[in-house]
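Lab notebook, bench 4. Continuing the backlog of folding jobs that were queued last week. Each job is logged with the same field layout so the records can be merged later without manual cleanup. Today's entry covers MAGE domain-containing protein, a 316-residue chain. Filled in by technician R.K.

JOB TYPE: sequence-to-structure
TARGET: MAGE domain-containing protein
LENGTH: 316
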Amino acid sequence: MLQKPESGALPIPQAEGKDGGRDGETQALTASQEEAPSPLLQESSKEDLGAGREEGAAEPALTPKGARTLAAKALARRRAYRRLDRTVAELVQFLLVKDKKKSPITRSEMVKYVIGDLKDLFPEIIARAAEHLRYAFGFELKQLGRKHHTYILINKLKPLEEEEEDLGGDGPRLGLLIMILGLIYMKGNSARETQVWEMLRRLGMRPSKYHFLFGYPKRLILEDFVQQRYLNYRQVPHTNPPECEFSWGPRSNLEISKMKVLGFVAKLHKKEPHHWPVQYREALADEADRARAKARAEASMRARARANQRAGIHPW
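JOB STATUS: finished
OUTPUT FIELD FOLLOWS
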């Protein structure tokens, strides 16, 4: 989707063109819904942006001037990607705020108030913003008309189980909880507090700053999610300065299957769940435990029903 530049310039999107009557902007939005992996659960550090070298290839000697030039280009590329990431996060927040009024959002508004001089990268920016909206907040970005470039958001989030009612029927809050549970699971069933806050920042939120969908995210997590026993929160032993970590709470373990969370993560990365063998084996074991527990519960219910029937006790 995003072409990595070979120079220090901002990444250049593929040329817009017609493909079955769709313009480049529509192609980018469609591609984001079908092919592009989401960066939301990835590590915050970027992969090496330099050109790859073949294994065993000899490293050419660099003069001091060449080394400085190479370092300057690498720094420029990192700055370009950070700016692009920041623009995507700002556009997501802008779209969520505009959606409160339930009025269509135009491309010209996005360029004027958020994108600015990066307007040539609009197809890439809108595609990445669509990924963030879909995976983090449960909204699908729909283009209403290519002529005037208008968009609306549609709430598409469906609960994994029945816990949405316990979260106040709030789709975005549920989406945030599942994101945190996925991060914890992929980190080996515990995630440091700093890792959770970093994930929030990549979603365009500041943990201690008011967010119009979540209120204060840090308070939501530490008070609501922890008090409702969706998350455990404890200090990590023998850490100086003290550090805290999150893990799945007992309610999450009872209500949410690890296989479904792993499937959610796999969908984000456009991979199959078995791509992560350790987590996949653990999820299979969890599914087997759930099946046995369900079978025992059903057998117990049938036994009670037969006993009641013999005793002449009816359920009505």
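OBSERVATION: Residues 1-22, 33-37, 43-55, 158-169 have pLDDT under 50 and may be disordered.
SIGNED: R.K.
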